Please model this.
Amino acid sequence: MVNSVPPNSSSIVPANNQNFEIFSLIWLDQDVESQYIQNAENKLRSNINLIKKFLDVKKCQQYVEDLSPADRVVMIVSGGLGQQIVPSIHKLRQVISIYVYCMNKERNKRWSKYFTKVKGVINEVDELVSQINTDRQIQRNLDEPFSHNLFNVNCGNGTSTSDINGKFIFSQVLIDCILRIKSNEEDKNELITCCKQYYAGSCMTMNHLDEFEKTYSPDKVLWWYSRESFFYNVLNRALRNENIHIIFLFREFISDIYHQLKEYQVKTPITTYRCQLMSSDELKTMKASVGHFISVNSFFSTSASAKEARSFIHTFFIRDNLEPVLFEITADPHVA
Model:
């Protein structure tokens, strides 16, 4: 079964919601059941499906702290409750941005200016939704977890590497098996059924699912993957978290992506670039792994232009304990 989001009795939405995506939104406000917040929630679901709402600061904080560091959370807080919770959760890796929704902007700007993750103090619902949706597009390109495995080639230096190397080998074998096992209609139907149950509250995504079910063909797989839709969100999270069940259900489409990429593979070496935010610890591990093998546990989107890749960094404020990293990747088809 797919892992469930940790249950919490304070959440207004059902506690057994399963998070199929990396990004989610938490709304902390004593008026979370009001009509204007319901309207804003419906607009936000075009970019973030899982929205958890809380009335109580302590229960909200506990929920955030229990999330995996690989999750990414956008938070909306009221002025009064925000002043209580922001100092406690501001440094958590999973919290990527905070928006203060309040009536008194000037008063709440005075305390929030000391917290770099606070992206805005806003008193208009439409402005709030617009800024979150705009920032979300940048976050998707820049701040998704960098899920990878390392293979330490220095096995004879007295250091145990069985666990590290085992994870590397497992990820390689897993994908190889996925490409070899034939899919069937039953698994495809199960995947679509799971997604329809999860996205039942999102009219836009339900329309995407109906379109996918009726029109999908292998030659359109890269179009579906690059589109802002359930396909990209669910598949990426499953690969990054090594959710075997969901990966297995996606195996037909992973195979289609593989064959499409093979078809478009360049004939000569090419250099591409990707900008990524990484924690100081992640960067330290990478620096210590020079000369070893690395595998990325998801599809790695890159740009042919270093300038274009770096542009994402300049449009988003770098937060505490995070480093902007530019990957320069030389891909040689004769070596692969």
Observations:
- The chain has three domains: 23-141, 181-263, 270-331.
- Residues 270-331 form one domain.
- Residues 193 and 257 are 22 Å apart (CA to CA).
